[in-house]
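Lab meeting, action items carried over

1. Structure of the two-component assembly. Owner: GW. Status: complete.
Input record:
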Amino acid sequence: MSTDSIASGGIAARIAGFVRRPEAGTLAGLIIVYVVFAVLGGGLFIGAPGWSSFLNMAAEVGIIALPVGLLMIAGELDISVGAVLPAASLTVAIISGHYDLPVYYGVAAALAVGLMVGAINGFLVTRTTIPSLIITIGTMFGTMGLTLGFTVMIAGSTGVFMTPDDISRALLGQFVGGMFRVTIFWWVAFVVGTFYLLHISRWGNWVFALGGDRESARNAGIPTRRLTIGLYMYSGFAAAFVGVSQVITFQSAQVAAGQSFIFNSIMCVVIGGVLLTGGAGTVFGIVFGTLTFAIVNQGIFFSGIDPNFGSIIIGTLLLAAVLSNDSFRQMALSYASKKS
Amino acid sequence: MKVENTWKKAGLAAVLALSSTALLAADIFVIGGKPDDPFWSIVKRGAEDAGLVVEAQGGSVTWLGPQNYDNLGVDAAELIRQAIDQGADGIVGPNWVPEAMDPAFQAVVDAGIPLIIYNAGGIEAADRLGALNYVGAVDYLAGVAGGEYVGKAGKSNGVCINSLPGAANIEDYCNGFVEGIESTGGKGSVLPLPATAQGNVTAVSQAVRAHLLKNPEIDAVFTTANLDAVGSVQAIAQSGKAGSVALCGINFDEAILTSIANGSQACAIDQQGYQQGFYAVSILNGHINYGLNIPTREILTGPGIVDSSNVEATMAGAKEGSR
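Predicted assembly:
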């Protein structure tokens, strides 16, 4: 590891400088994946149809992957996002569709549901010694059960229809240029906000400290409980936001939706170079990871590859990304420790 | 084979005679889909409504569904064995993945528990396993009906969206659809989706759109799940093909009926899930309690077609949660 840095000359130092950026490996992977599918997919994939296709998908999973990534940096997991999403969709559909109340009532209630599940997760994680994986699996099933129970009780069906008003459709369900979902711009806003939180504000250092060593973080005066609860509320909010935008876009909410977001968001974060054990990761890494994931998922359909093999490519990508991130991180970590 | 069946039937009859005299409370276990699955909640409703009679006669109806569809065949086989272990007097189950589930159904018959196959498998499965009867639609025929519908509407190239590759009933829908559209002189194909798209309407929608853009000759889409149909409506609109690409799908809910009413979906194939749950439980209950039998083998509940001509009438039932 350190032999590289000792042998650094001019060019070597510059290469080392790039490699030192933790997201360098992810960006390299993203470019390779895009080029591969651009070659296979041709003009259709390089043009607006291809970009809108993977950006639409990336935006939704990306909004959830950001807080899930923050939680992983802080050493925690959140499985419950997969249940919060349909819970939020159905909250909107039941309040604004079934009961025909104004859409913003439904949206506000749905986001509140997300924040509440997040607060419960955070509370349980900070007050017990149960691993967050288990706690959030528990709250996932709890939320799923409540969603199903209330939906069948109130609407008598597991799919609820609604007609959004013009304002909510313009803000959350619109297709810019007929194909780019407005969610993409919301994703950008989430990225900017999360970047500020993690990399500029004081709060960000606390998150890293939390993932590095929880005990020392608390001894250093970081309000670890409040921070953890805040992170879980953010991920609950983000999942609810995606649920809201899905119901406004598709005008229908289904109880069975959302579960693929659990693994998909974790995959995006891991491809993005966030350490599973916590303490390391960047917002741009998560964004690159999300884009890579979405390009592979959508690229399959443009490329002419037999879609039967699609899952193999997705799985291989995940393993390759983690392997390459690992070696990049080795270099990055050895440099960082040398500098300090 | 034939001899074996006769023996099984004889054995069954003996057991039934015993059980009908021994106890008059039928504890019936129904294996079905996830209770939050739009289609299965309707089947469950039918089973529960039939369960009112079962309960009035001192019995019970218990619904067993998997938590997810990631490992459907194995999970469902496990549920069948659970039902046996819990002392079921009668079992209703779908034969989704014969390879994984047949041994479990065999165990039901071997234990002398009356069995009805419903929803998937057809009368062939009921005969093979020694079940009393089959209640349900023939998946393959439902697919054929969809293929013929779009073919007769003048479409010549259809794709079936398979969001659950490997499940026997979805494969049958898709094969039937291909057969149906080919019988009208058209061309049919199947698009399998990766697991990362499951339950994610956006991912399904984008996959279908990409496929339509990549293959501009496709003018009909066939879906096998409600979520996929909702996603495909958007996919067709965003690929600029609203009006030129026809969408048909298996099953429906309120949202899909609205799509049919406003013309963005052409038709839905109805297998009347309520009837499947209702009749399977009723027949089994009568059989266990009173030794009754239905001489008609293979009780078909579908396919029926919902399109613009009968969508209004169907909507009323959908609002009740029974269609």
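2. GW to write a short summary for the group page. Key points so far: The two ends of chain A are 17 Å apart (CA to CA). The first strand of chain A starts at residue 159 and ends at 161.
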